[in-house]
Amino acid sequence: MDPVGCLWISTVLWSLTAGGLTPYRRSAEYPMLSSDQDRIQLCKFCEPRPTTCTGDFICPSDCSVTSICNGTEVCVAVWRRTTKTITMEVMCHDPEVELYDHKLGDSVSDKCVMQNKQSQRESLYMCSCKGEECNDLLYFESMKENPVSFNNVNVPSLQNENHVSLSSTTAIPTHQKEYQKSLTEKITERFCRICEPRPTNCAGSGLCRSNCDNSNFCEKFEVCVAVWRNSTEKSTVEVMCHNPKAELYGHRLDNSISERCQMQKKESVGESLYMCSCKGLLCNDDLLFRGAVDDPNSLSNNIVVQNTNKDNLYESKDDGTVILNRQCYLCIVNVTTKCDTTQDLCENDCTIVTTCESAKEVCVAVWRKDETETTTMDAMCHDPRKPLFDHMLDDYNSSKCLMKEKKMAAGETMYMCSCNDSECNKNLYFREVVKNWNPYVALISLLPPIGIAVAVIITFYCYRVLRKNKHPSEWDKHNKCTKHKGCSDDHAIMIDDDRSDISSTCANNLNHNTELLPIELDTLVGKGRFAEVYKAKLKQNTSEQFETVAVKIFPYEEYGSWKMEKEIFSDINLKHENILQFLTAEERKTDLGKQYWLITAFHSQGNLQDYLTRHIISWDGLLNLGGSLARGVAHLHSDHTPCGRHKTPIVHRDLKSSNILVKNDLTCCLCDFGLSLWLDPSLSVDDLANSGQVGTARYMAPEVLESRINLENMESFKQTDVYSMALVLWEITSRCTAIGEVKDYEPPFGSKVREHPCVESMKDNVLRDRGRPEIINNWLNHQGIQLVCETITECWDHDPEARLTAQCVAERFTEMEQLDRLSDRSCSEEKIPEDCLEDTTK
User: Fold this and answer.
1) Which amino acids are annotated as binding site, given as ranges?
2) The predicted structure's pLDDT at residue 5
3) Of 353, 265, 239, 255, whose CA–CA distance to 306 is shortest?
4) 37-146, what's its fold?
């Protein structure tokens, strides 16, 4: 056959093979073949707001809101500068539609490169890109003419863990996208001057320039480094990137986290050797030798004054007046000082006054004492929005520089102060002296408000106690949220529960907290596929007072699971006494890298699986555990709250005894919503199909094992939870004394499958053999157990539509509890009487 014929046959075969995949199969079974149009576009989305970005180099958007774009929309950023303000706006926008009378020309880029647009009244830059939150970091065109432009350096490629290049059209996993974003945010910390050793006029004192024009991005973990050598022949300077954990010329780098390159003398035979290391944009361009400020007259032509951009030294008002930025004392290198913390007031030894680069900067002074008892002083301008020596400035609104001690490594002491008056960092107050203070006058002035406060507290306490004793039934009605009366939002939250392991007042305050909580991790109490759970102490007003909480810690690569669970927990309508009480979510930076925390109530009894392993339960215990479990699942599945407010139903999708906690009152609460799914009516069939086959194989319903869920009916997803709940109810029943002989705890299907069975193994048991956990005939001798077993059997029916709903199961347990209360008065303790059962069926 000729080559043309072979090519034609190959083309036909390929088209039949690839084209035979339906759109559903391409997206669900072969995600790498899914089209870009099916991908969700996430972008930063904030209205125009003032920004400190000056339109040079790289700027962050400073926007904390992320939005899901519609259809063909891409991520966009708009930067404007007028005579009065500079603003930044980030959004989603259709690239086919003009924005502010301009077309977006680079919407397929994976970086947001700002382009100048013509505008008569303002300076206008726009960019657009197609990547997750790609408009969070903005690259300005002015970088093309800048010596440190990305066009003149080797930008490190953003790669996955196997070093496979990630294109903008590939469906990148969430944790890889987060890794790309994190790496992009940190590149400016590792952008350094790089030059081979070259002769220099630097004499090894004062402040010298590297005189190097080459810049590049360092590898991971590397920092900026400078080396100055002086021999009998010449002096040289070398600048580079280097890993601080590795020796350089036989020496270790000691100050690699500093923002400035402070030269330190190293031992060397036949030459004078100084080294410095730092972490900041081009920070090894300025070499700071000790003594640069001790003798201001010694500063040579190599020295650069802090402010070189005169346009930023003042602010122009609308009336034409010009206001200079704040002036502060400046010690650009540590200066030995005689100041001591025992003094009330001390003057720093700095002699240079500088004008701050930005109107937002304040005056700062830093006093330090090292292990050798040497005390030094730093003074400078600093932006209080940025950390200084790993600490945030918390007193910069003061007119005085009040020194406060900061936590440091063992053997080191540091005091820091900040203030907002010009030259206010000259006088340093180690303790504030209050003059003419009379303790007796102060005490007398405090007596009236203290008396009023005590009277109010006593009155309120008496009112609560008397009202509760007088009308206990009415009190209970108002404390519970029912759908028969109009309920307020406060009652709907349902966390004002005496049985909760953490106070509701504390919980309400935490939900609105924007700062990291003072939490001390205690012991590891659990470990799962995605996270570890710790018992922890939440510090209160004093170190002696604390609340016990649980902290679920997700590693950096499990951001997606943390985000999903956080969003589920954040739904105000989820709150219920049988759902784990959520306090807050946090992003934390630790020595091990970035972590994601979920902080919840702590339940000392642990999860249901461990509890059943350790305890045998009574018939009352079965009713408590089973009924509360059913009520929790019913609330999760419901489309309204107990108060009648609309609620989006949620399916758990990983319901099992290890994902259920036991509270102190021996009721259950559901937890671990990392795989949960909102049953939003707006979701399409394709959206539901792409949700995947998730959960634990042992607890998967037959239709989940077979991947045959009815996507046209959202109730089908709820029935998968009902099947899993039936297996948990079987576990609870198997450890109840009412069944007769109680054996050691076994999970569902026990020894029929291995400890962690795979999906194929469960298919053989559940689909092929139609197997279910064994219900022994002796169990049915107890009338109550017989009712429970009938409920379990109806819940794990092979046909999803034949199963009971979670609400129906909850109602059955409520009826059994009511009958059990009747039996306490008229029937035996061990059985629900047959005549009682007959009455309920009539």
Assistant:
1) 552
2) 52
3) 353
4) CD59 (2.10.60)
